[in-house]
Amino acid sequence: MSGQLVAAEGLPWPPSVGDFYPPDLAGPWVTKFTLMIWLAVGILIIFFMVAYRNPKLVPSKGQWYAESIYGLVRDNIAREQMGKDGIRFAPYFTVLFCFIALTNLFGVTPGLQISPNSHIAFPIVLAAITYVMYLYIGVRKQGLGRYLKQSLIIPGVPWPMHFLLIPIEFLQNFINRPVTLAVRLFANMFAGHLILLVFTVGGFVMLASDNIFIQATSIFAFLMAILMAFFEVLVALLQAYVFVTLTANYIGTSLSDGH
Amino acid sequence: MYLAAEGVEHHPLVPIWQELVVGSIAFALLCFVLMKFVLPRMETMYQARVDAIEGGLKRAEAAQAEANQLLEQYRAQLAEVRTEAAQIRDDARADAESIRTEILAKAREESDRIIAAGRESLAVERQTIVRELRAEVGGLAVDLASRIVGESLADEARRKGTVERFLTDLESAGAR
């Protein structure tokens, strides 16, 4: 039945992975997704440059917003996770947070309506930077040997346990961390978009039905879509927060001496 | 399965390499611009603000401390002044008391002295008067008696004895 509807209305039902890959605008370099990335970069640069073109001790409104974001990341993420050392990483974390939050919010922005982070390439880039950063910092701070020892060997367990624990710790610290970081962000955005598609497109599909009862029911689908859109805003910000917090946490472990 | 059926579908877990490149470059650009031109200034501003606020707090604290100290000082001074005033009042009261008693004593002494002097002079006066009267009354009585009787009592000794007797009688009568 739904197949008939799709044929009738031209609506892509059910939503599929194909919906995440719209046709290229001009070759593989200029797509909706790459343009959104440039848009995000442009918005953030302009926002911060304008907000901070003439900073004052008593801030203007724009300056205050910019500083609030910075303050949030600086105090609630960097310092919380890493202590005083974290403050020098706060600028990068702020950029990271803003970039992820904004690109995530594209998922509920009218006209864009999909987050670039629902293409795993972008989370991979960000997670890779985090990965390289915490490895590099760990090795530079403690030396390769000590860093590996700290990362792999849990002190105070009977030695035969290390046959089991070292591979687990290795998997945990050097593979799972970056992979989950990237996949978590990607999956949240991917699923969020899928949910919105299901309710929105589903609502239209129901509306296009011949059955008056099904048409009436479509209202619930639209209500749900609206509800989910708000939920997506929350998820967008939360995922940005989680990503940055975990990055800070990983770098913090690299900096700290204990296990 | 699904992918194979659609043919053109892209596996969502396989990154598009062009996007990796674009993402890296774009994010690097973003990081470069913001971390070079904006965020260091933000940190500086943050510190400046913290300094300003903490400095302000410190100044306020210092002012508060100074005010407290002054208040303490004033209180101490006030208390000192109060005790001093009380002291002065007590002294004055004591002085007044002593002056009063002194004056009273003096007055009493004076009055006593005056009274004593009065009494003495009175006694002297009385003595004199008594003496004079005694001589005069004797003469008068004799004169009167001789005039009444008309005869002059030639006998000096008798006359004296008579007068003495008379006066003694008179005195004893007066004393009674």
Automatic annotation (TrEMBL), chain B:
Origin superkingdom: Bacteria
Coiled coil region boundaries: none
Keyword annotations: ATP synthesis, Cell membrane, CF(0), Hydrogen ion transport, Ion transport, Membrane, Transmembrane, Transmembrane helix, Transport
One Pfam entry name: ATP-synt_B
Membrane topology: Single-pass membrane protein
Primary role: F(1)F(0) ATP synthase produces ATP from ADP in the presence of a proton or sodium gradient. F-type ATPases consist of two structural domains, F(1) containing the extramembraneous catalytic core and F(0) containing the membrane proton channel, linked together by a central stalk and a peripheral stalk. During catalysis, ATP synthesis in the catalytic domain of F(1) is coupled via a rotary mechanism of the central stalk subunits to proton translocation.
Annotated protein name in UniProt: ATP synthase subunit b
Species assigned in the record: Micromonospora endophytica
Gene name per UniProt: atpF
